[in-house]
Amino acid sequence: MKMQFPVEAFASIETPFYYYDVELLKATLETVKQEAAKYEGFHVHYAIKANFNPRLLEIVNAAGIGADCVSGGEVRAALDAGIPASKVVFAGVGKTDKEIALSLDAGIFCFNVESVPEIEAIERLAAERGVVARIAIRVNPNVGAHTHANITTGLAENKFGVNYEQLDEVIDVVESMPHLELVGLHFHIGSQLLVMDDFIALCCRINELQELLYDTRGLVLPHINVGGGLGIRYDFPDRYPIPDFELYFATYANNLNRRPGQQVHFELGRSLVAQCGALITRATYIKKGTCKQFIILDAGMNDLVRPALYDAFHRVENLMSTEADEVYDVVGPVCESSDVFCKDRRIPRTKRGDIMAIRSAGAYGEAMAFGYNCREIPKAVLSTDI
Ligand code: LLP
Prior knowledge:
Number of helices: 11
Bound molecules: ligand LLP
Number of domains: 2
């Protein structure tokens, strides 16, 4: 099932806009659910940061998937979409009192905590309310992942999580707090990971850590949250529209030594929503330079920042031309020289007004759009709107 583009219908819609193929999204969610359900006690939470469009969140909720949030705004978005608080986890190094209070009042499943002062803040706010907050400690496993430096998170030098050397002390703090219940450990090593070895390395660290905690403290926790990070094929979105969830879950099932009854939580963002979305844009001008030709789009880095921010690869397709390929730099109109989607790319000969698709943009596309240069944030069009 590959993404479908109703090009005739696009002709009457103002560009740029985000387009989502609902059928592909539903098929992806169905697949992830089926594959996770093969293993007792595997739970999937959708990492809302990838795309918090309320209409997509409703589809995620209808599939019965929980939420992974990193701000009060995301907790609110999850609840507004109907996702039950009992399926919401909340991570982040800088949770404010207001965000913690909102989450305690909603009764979310678990806080993934990252520091002692944060633990103290949750204890104080839980005590004020006379409730007990469930806590998972985010451990920094010091596993380097094969991905872009800006999106690796599991190294000791990152701001995320608690380092091994500090873990004992942090557990002591949580256990000393009457309004906190330590229910699990949380990990996340990075994003856009396509090599299963990275997840195997994480499993090995978790196994060692579980043994250590059992040997030294007799501690067995009911929940392990392994984070997200499963990558997608930006190079061939039509050949790989749905990621290999079967292999992903099997990797954890085969490599993570679970204690009896232990539940495993996954926080998948990109792999659930990236391939069902595209940024639809028009070629405003074709500009010939002395040694290059440029396609200047009406979409820019403010609409999809990944190429400018991470040097990320996205396929750029002309949905109207079947002519022979030419070589172009594809750029946006924003007043920044980093406003480039790709350089020296072969694309069918393009003329002014052609409708183009920047593929695999359903994750971290609309969610990261901003209004620089007084540009409007692109609207979202769902296939079911047409
Ligand atoms: N859990 C935690 C704790 C995370 O930090 C993240 C992503 C996820 C889950 C979801 O990861 P995913 O399954 O989507 O890989 N803006 C960047 C990606 C940043 C990811 C941040 N954390 C990009 O466009 O590539």
